Amino acid sequence: MSDLYTQLVNNPIGKLVASNVGLPQPVKLDRWSPYASVVDGQALFGAAPGGRLLTAIAKVLAMVEVSTSTSLRTDLREACAAADLDAAVFNPEAPGEQRFKALVYDASGIKSSEQLAELRAFFGPSIRRVQPSGRVLVVGTPPENAGSPKEAAAQRALEGFVRSLGKELRYGATAQLVYVAPGAEDDITSTLRFLLAPKSAYVSGQVLRVTPAPDTPENPGALDWDLPLAGKVALVTGASRGIGAAIATVLARDGAHVVGLDVPALGDDLRDLMDELDGSAFELDITDVDAGEQLVTHLTAAHGGVDVVVHNAGITRDKTLGRMSADQWDLVIGINLTAEERLNDALLEAGTLRKGGRIVCVSSMNGIAGAAGQTNYATSKAGVIGMVEAMAPVVAKQGHTINAVAPGFIETAMTAAMPIGPREAGRRMNSVSQGGLPVDVAEAIAFFAKPVSGGLNGNVLRVCGQSLLGA
Ligand SMILES: NC(=O)c1ccc[n+]([C@@H]2O[C@H](COP(=O)([O-])OP(=O)(O)OC[C@H]3O[C@@H](n4cnc5c(N)ncnc54)[C@H](O)[C@@H]3O)[C@@H](O)[C@H]2O)c1
Fold first, then answer.
1. Residue 146 sits in the same domain as residue 63
2. pLDDT (0 to 100) of residue 25
3. What pTM value is reported for the model?
4. How far apart are CA 198 and CA 175, in angstroms?
5. What is the whole-number distance in angstroms between the Cα of residue 315 and the centre of ligand 1?
6. How many Å lie between the centroid of ligand 1 and the Cα of residue 314?
7. How many domains does the chain have?
8. Separation in Å, CA 464 to CA 169, 283, 294, 368, 408
9. Pocket-testing residue among 272, 298, 312, 363, ligand 1, by greatest number of atoms within 8 A of Cβ
10. Smallest CA separation from ligand 1 atom 38, residue
11. Which of 159, 177, 210 is the last residue in one of the domains?
């Protein structure tokens, strides 16, 4: 649906008025196109002294072929040389007009609160050089893997820094924190690529954890970044419309054979979309008592198994708790949570999810922040997060991963039907002052679905433009 306010403040008169009266000024965010580079501009690479991730980061910058600048510091120069990254010299204190599309900073060398001053020293002078839709990435050590309580506190402090920076950035620029566990240095490529690229347009103020990925043949280190899902079968529930249709489209773009699932009542729409995507349609109500068995039988017979499972189907039945019927409660929990648990159990028990499988669940920001009139919905979506966190170590034993994406305000038929007050509040109350698009959720799911994303397990990634709710 069109966002009239954003259109208005992006014409010259609207821009002037909005800026004079202090209204939010959403900009058109950079998004993926077949011709766009991962980073459409230059990168500035910095680090606190003693960082353990310098070479790993430099390798990613070299791989995405971004023109990079860094300081004259020996450790940074050595890391760039080791990664074959031809970095120019840049002094952020120097006056001048140089701008950057990305600031990438290795904070893993920060081992005490005193050393947090390194953050101000690097970002203070460079932050104003970030371009529209630019990216700030801070990479650190998970506090749980720190060598001392002081290092743990300093690394945990990075969350507050990044979340605040995300709120200070303007013009669609974003900030994220990536914690890289010891041993996962070589597993950061897909995460850094996604967070640097326009594919993460509506993600800001987020924290991702990368752990060592199991080294299986299904999870190769090198792959075709244009068709990362080539040869893979991806099931998407609720695929006939809205966010599910966008997920199916993006996974097909990435090379997957998509099996779109939806209720029989939406069978025509589902078949039309699957025809367009060269996918297959499977009509099923996921709350059927034998839904798991039906799905296992179908996926085994028609596709020999499945590699990616996206639990997107979901509903709302809003009412304040005192007015909510047992049916409204049961239906929402049944579709949004119980059905996902049952399908997972069936697919895992039967071995239908092939080795290196990826399960990605669609939660919701309201499952994190809560929302009046949505006790049933928020309970179900918080339960999805609980399921992901609890199942992560279980599925890891079988070489799979499970992660969740929690969308905020996404421009869909559902949000278009909201009354204007809550709709405008939902759209503007985030760091980029606009709603996200279904494709933004789909890109985050496609990121977790990649074979090379094996280092991401048990993460919950909000796609909410850093909503001010539930931050
Ligand atoms: N739109 C948003 O802003 C937003 C925000 C946060 C989370 N979400 C979540 O994203 C997901 C998709 O939302 P949407 O806005 O595209 O909704 P939508 O209503 O347009 O699509 C949901 C799909 O799920 C299918 N579905 C529902 N019950 C089913 C069942 N029993 N068996 C099989 N399929 C079933 C529907 O038929 C439909 O195609 C949902 O899980 C929703 O909770 C949406």
1. yes
2. 76
3. 0.95
4. 13
5. 5
6. 4
7. 2
8. 15, 30, 34, 12, 4
9. 312
10. 238
11. 210
Residue nearest to atom 19 of ligand 1 (CA): 315
pLDDT score of 147 = 97
- Whether 265 and 367 map to the same domain: the answer is yes
The rounded Å distance from CA 367 to ligand 1 centre is 14
C-alpha distances (whole Å) from 264 to each of 12, 289, 342 are 49, 16, 20
Same domain? 442 vs 405: yes
Identify whether 80 is part of a domain.
Answer: yes
Q: Whose CA is nearest to atom 18 of ligand 1?
A: 242
198 and 267 part of one domain: no
* 224 falls within a domain: no
305 and 346 within one domain:
yes
Entry field: residues in the chain: 471
- Report the CATH number that the domain containing residue 205 is assigned in CATH: 3.40.50.720
For residue 171, indicate whether it is catalytic.
no
Domain contains 114: yes
b/e per residue 209-244 (b: at least 16 CB within 10 A): bbbebbeeebbeeebeeeebbeebbbbbbbbbbbbb
Closest ligand 1 atom number to CA of residue 363: 7
CA of 89 to the centre of ligand 1 (A): 49
Whether residues 165 and 270 fall in one domain: no
Q: What is the mean pLDDT of each run of 10 residues along the chain (471 residues)?
A: 71 67 80 93 97 97 96 96 96 84 98 98 95 98 98 98 97 98 96 98 98 68 81 98 97 98 98 98 98 98 98 96 98 98 98 97 96 96 98 97 97 85 89 96 98 96 91 56
